[in-house]
Design a protein that fits this description.
It is a single chain. With about 475 residues, the chain is an alpha+beta fold. It has two domains: about 240 residues, no CATH class; about 220 residues, Alpha-Beta Complex (Aminoglycoside 3'-phosphotransferase, Chain: A, domain 2), CATH 3.90.1200. About 35% of the residues lie in helices and about 20% in strands. It is built from twelve helices and 18 strands. Strand 1 and strand 2 form a beta hairpin. Helix 6 packs parallel to helix 11 and helix 9 packs antiparallel against helix 10. The longest helix is centred in the last third of the chain and has 22 residues. It is globular and about 65 Å long. The chain starts with about 25 loop residues before the first helix and ends in a 6-residue tail after the last helix. Bound molecules: adenosine-5'-diphosphate (ADP) and the ligand O=P(O)(O)O[C@H]1O[C@H](CO)[C@@H](O[C@H]2O[C@H](CO)[C@@H](O)[C@H](O)[C@H]2O)[C@H](O)[C@H]1O. The site of adenosine-5'-diphosphate (ADP) has 18 residues, from strand 10.
């Protein structure tokens, strides 16, 4: 375990982080406004890509280190205003709220150059340079210290599980891989995920790992600390960040799958272990939180949602159109089963499961991470009980993705993994997902439709991967 280098700050005391910027906040934000308008849309985690930012509203401002001192740290929650896209214009759409950590210095040392937001000539920060503070070990340390100290700073609350020891002085480093949020690793011991687009209410990224820890499920790193904002202007609390034990030397399932594919090795044993891990998590969630039975009316709603998403996707990606009738019947087949009296159990699930959300420790143990669900959906939707087949379908699609990202594609590799994963799942849960092929096909189809839109928007080169699956699903030739 590494210790802080001598340039890191002495551990911040709760007193050092008790200065609230509520009154100075609007003036600070006004001076930052032009810089943030330019900087925010360039961030990987910015959710409103493709539309300019036209202004900001302050939700909360907290000085974690006084901005008047040599090194300041300003915590901001801001709403970013953007013009509405035509499809949204009928309904009011609240501007997205983002969590920002702004460092304030006179000059930036060269090592912090990539973190630069800009230099201010006017306003309360005139003559100072502002930057993304998470690149800087000193402000990052303030967050860990606040969690250790269970600090209350303005409207920010830092909490921890006292049963987990969090040592002072663990050296922070920002995770630089592509992420929807931002994470800082402390001394290879803990990882703090700071949510970027934040919403009020219970966030499954904290809720579910806490529940699973309480259930004694070892497949998910147990939260050691968490950060929330309890705003005086709102009844709801906002989850801002979660600290979890860092799985040292871990590789994610996607990297490992590609590595094995490149070596021509099969991944069956790992896929089976992943099936078992998924079922362990599902079993624990079903014990911890309510399950419900879905009957005809609920299935009709579910099928209507899938069909609507398909219609929207065929508008957005014309290449889907030739397959739409068969895909619609994949969904309709589910509604038909419900009409004949079939019912399904629904429970809390991961909600966005794929190989990239699975970490394997050097000892071969699998953990599941990132229980945030699909960030584009509302918290209420993400927290709804759903059939476990939805997570299973996500993983089955992921094996298919890995195999079809190869030249030439390796469909046999995918089939083996998909079957092994379902067998592993059945070993723990007692129920093999393949025994409900209509449900599984509907969920795989729904996911593949989502992927077609995702790839068309974000990675057009990848579009052939989900489109190939769409062809197989339309022909009902893709069962695991
Ligand atoms: N507990 C952990 N141990 C080791 N690495 C982790 C852990 N949690 C997350 N990571 C790493 O951080 C990355 C981002 O985490 P994730 O929760 O998926 O964030 P995001 O929602 O921003 O995508 C993961 O891909 C993984 O590599
Ligand atoms: O990063 P997120 O977890 O928010 O997920 C989004 O990006 C994923 C790609 O990074 C995308 O996943 C798709 O590609 C993966 C390979 O890169 C593959 O393993 C997944 O099965 C496939 O869905 C995901 O759909 C998207 O929401």
């Amino acid at each position: 375990m590494s210790e802080a280098p001598s340039e890191a700050p002495s551990a911040a005391t709760p007193e050092a982080v008790t200065h609230s910027a509520r009154t100075a906040g609007p003036a600070l934000l006004a001076s930052l406004d032009p810089l943030l308008r330019e900087w925010l849309p360039r961030q990987r985690w910015f959710a409103g890509k493709g539309r300019p930012v036209t202004g900001f509203t302050l939700v909360a401002a907290t000085e974690l280190l006084p901005v008047s001192s040599k090194l300041g740290l300003l915590h901001l929650l801001v709403r970013a205003h953007q013009p509405l896209v035509p499809v949204q214009s009928a309904a009011p759409h609240p501007a997205d709220c983002y969590q920002l950590l702004i460092g304030v210095r006179e000059t930036l040392p060269p090592r912090l150059a990539p973190a630069l937001i800009g230099h201010l000539d006017e306003g309360p920060l005139a003559g100072r340079t502002v930057y993304e503070a998470l690149y800087d070990p000193r402000p990052a340390d303030v967050l860990l210290e606040a969690l250790r100290a269970r600090a209350r700073v303005g409207e920010l609350r830092f909490e921890r599980d006292m049963r987990q020891e969090i040592r002072a002085g663990l050296v922070p480093r920002l995770v630089t891989s592509e992420q929807s949020n931002s994470s800082v690793v402390y001394g290879d011991t803990f990882i703090l995920k700071l949510l970027r687009r934040i919403v009020p209410g219970t966030n499954p990224d904290l809720e579910l790992p806490l529940m699973l820890a309480r259930e004694g499920c070892p497949r998910v790193p147990a939260p050691a600390g968490w950060m929330t904002a309890d705003l005086t202007s709102s009844d709801d609390s906002y989850v801002l960040g979660v600290l979890q034990p860092f799985v040292q030397g871990a590789a994610d399932g996607w990297e490992l799958a590609l590595r094995e594919l490149a070596k021509g090795e099969d991944f069956g044993a790992e896929a089976r272990a992943l099936g078992r891990a998924t079922a362990e998590v599902h079993t624990a969630l079903a014990r911890a939180l309510p399950t419900v039975t879905l009957g005809r009316s609920q299935l009709e709603l579910l099928v209507a949602g899938m069909t609507e998403r398909l219609e929207a996707a065929t508008q957005a990606v014309p290449a889907l159109r030739p397959y739409a009738p068969e895909l619609r019947s994949a969904f309709a087949a589910l509604a038909d089963l419900a009409a004949e009296g079939s019912t399904w159990t629904a429970q809390r699930i991961h909600g966005d499961l794929h190989l990239g959300q699975c970490l394997r420790s050097p000892g071969g143990e699998w953990s599941l991470i990132d229980f945030e669900g699909e960030p584009s959906k509302s918290l209420a939707e993400r927290r709804m009980p759903q059939p476990v087949a939805r997570d299973v379908a996500g993983m089955l699609r992921s094996f298919d993705y890995a195999a079809h990202s190869q030249r030439p594609a390796e469909p046999g590799w995918a089939s083996l993994c998909r079957a092994a994963y379902c067998s592993g799942y059945a070993e723990i849960s007692g129920s093999d997902p393949r025994t409900d092929p209509v449900l599984l096909r509907a969920y795989e189809t729904d996911k593949a439709v989502y992927e077609v839109v995702y790839e068309a928007r974000h990675r057009p080169d990848w579009l052939p991967v989900p489109l190939a699956a769409i062809r197989r699903l339309a022909a009902n030739d893709d069962a695991p």
